């Protein structure tokens, strides 16, 4: 009888903690008005202890102000989510309670806008400083067109336009597969050197392609299985190289048609000119030097030299004279004197006052390597009182052999 009384007492004590509503079949622990199959009292703290005793840490479920707790007993114990049963469990996600790792997820994570009324943004991830003192950046949806990275002074500094498949760097409306902000300065750094950077940049009205130091080239070519083949380069000295060849002094780039361009030696062009002067030669008098019309030519190799002479003449002629003429003479200085190279004739001048132009056709001479000096003289041949020359030119071209 005493044993039966003791059982009744224990059941009565339990019923003070368990409230059973027969109509709803709800059980209350610490509450007389359970609202679900199992309800707890409206108090904070541990609610369900799954493993562990007393006040020691344990596995369980608890409630604190404004949040639900799901916890393990110690820092190196983790919390996993999955399916199956305890002895045959398939994990889909795991939360780590210590270390750098926070969570593993077996599968894709879909991030949505948590506030559908805020159409200006969308799902994403905020990233914090290593000491967790502040957020430094965001990865996620900018608007209904762009996803990207947000942070720092440029804010949305890197975006991807999903509508057009374009990437913007400092540009939220990229108009090309890769578009930069409309700012000057460095745009792409391919190699950060100790003295400078190699890459691309923009200055006012100028595209810049640069190397990283004063001894570095800028080369253009093609890649063949990982090997670079140079076709054109700009040397740090400013020299141009074609397929590695910088050419020689004075050579110019010549098109090879369907083949590669190359360096060649076309004619060099020079000119000596005298204008606003007057030099006179008397009738049948000796030739006189034309001031300023001299040429000093240094030939490093044998070459062909082509001269041209021209000038304006005028004179007072005798009516009874016949066929007077004027001549410009090109001389080469030689040891002990000069040597006539060629003349430019006026032809017959006729009668009375006359003026005209003296001009020579090409004067072509071939010379071996060496240094040469040439001068121009003016001669009046005929029955003319005075014949004057002005505005005279001497031009020459050099064609190395």
Label this structure with key terms.
1 helix; mainly beta; 4 domains; 54% strand; rod-shaped; 401 residues; six-stranded antiparallel beta sheet
Please render the helix and strand layout as text:
Layout: H1 2-17, E1 18-21, E2 26-29, E3 38-40, E4 45-51, E5 59-64, E6 67-71, E7 79-85, E8 88-95, E9 103-105, E10 124-128, E11 135-141, E12 146-150, E13 156-161, E14 166-169, E15 178-180, E16 185-192, E17 197-203, E18 206-210, E19 218-224, E20 227-234, E21 240-242, E22 252-254, E23 262-264, E24 268-274, E25 279-282, E26 288-299, E27 303-317, E28 325-334, E29 337-345, E30 354-359, E31 363-367, E32 370-381, E33 384-400
Shape: rod-shaped
Text of the CATH class of the largest domain: Mainly Beta
Structural class: mainly beta
Number of helices: 1
What integer value in Å does the Rg equal?
50 Å
Q: Which second-level CATH architecture of the largest domain applies?
A: Sandwich
CATH T-level fold name of the largest domain: Jelly Rolls
Measured between the Cα atoms of the first and last residue, the distance is 138 Å
Q: Note the main sheet.
A: 6 strands, mixed
Strand arrangement, largest sheet?
A: 10-11-12-13-14-15
- Estimate the helix proportion, in percent: under 10%
List low-pLDDT spans. 17-23, 346-353
Proportion of residues in β-strands: over 45%
Number of domains: 4
| Overall mean confidence score, pLDDT | 83
């Amino acid at each position: 009888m005493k044993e039966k009384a003791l059982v009744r007492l224990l059941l009565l004590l339990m019923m003070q903690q368990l409230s059973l509503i027969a109509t709803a079949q709800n059980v209350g622990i610490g509450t007389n008005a359970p609202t679900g199959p199992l309800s707890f009292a409206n108090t904070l703290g541990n609610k369900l202890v799954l493993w562990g005793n007393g006040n020691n840490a344990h596995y369980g479920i608890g409630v604190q102000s404004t949040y639900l707790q799901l916890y393990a007993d110690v820092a190196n114990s983790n919390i996993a989510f999955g399916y199956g049963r305890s002895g045959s469990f398939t994990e889909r996600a795991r939360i780590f309670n210590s270390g750098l790792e926070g969570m593993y997820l077996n599968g894709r994570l879909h991030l949505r806008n948590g506030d559908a009324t805020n159409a200006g943004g969308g799902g994403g991830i905020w990233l914090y400083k290593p000491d967790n003192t502040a957020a430094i950046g965001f990865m996620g949806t900018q608007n209904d067109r762009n996803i990207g990275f947000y942070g720092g002074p440029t804010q949305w500094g890197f975006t991807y336009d999903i509508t057009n498949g374009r990437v913007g760097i400092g540009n939220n409306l990229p108009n090309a597969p890769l578009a930069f902000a409309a700012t000057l300065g460095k745009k792409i750094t391919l190699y950060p050197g100790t003295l400078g950077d190699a890459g691309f940049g923009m200055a006012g009205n100028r595209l810049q392609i640069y190397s990283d130091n004063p001894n570095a080239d800028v080369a253009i070519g093609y890649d063949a299985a990982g090997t670079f083949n140079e076709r054109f380069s700009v040397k740090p000295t400013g020299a141009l190289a074609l397929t590695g060849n910088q050419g020689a002094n004075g050579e110019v780039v010549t098109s090879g048609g369907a083949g590669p361009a190359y360096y060649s030696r076309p004619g060099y062009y020079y000119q000596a000119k005298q204008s606003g002067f007057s030099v006179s030669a008397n009738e049948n008098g000796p030739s006189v030097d034309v001031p300023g019309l001299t040429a000093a030519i240094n030939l490093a190799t044998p070459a062909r030299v082509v001269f041209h002479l021209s000038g304006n003449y005028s004179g007072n002629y005798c009516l009874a004279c016949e066929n007077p003429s004027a001549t410009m003479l090109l001389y080469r200085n030689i040891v002990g004197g000069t040597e006539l190279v060629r003349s430019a004739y006026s032809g017959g001048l006729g009668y009375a006052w006359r003026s005209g132009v003296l001009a020579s056709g090409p004067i072509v001479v071939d010379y071996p390597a060496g240094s040469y000096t040439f001068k121009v003289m003016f001669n009046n041949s005929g029955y003319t009182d005075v014949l004057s020359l002005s505005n005279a030119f001497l031009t020459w071209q050099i064609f190395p052999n």
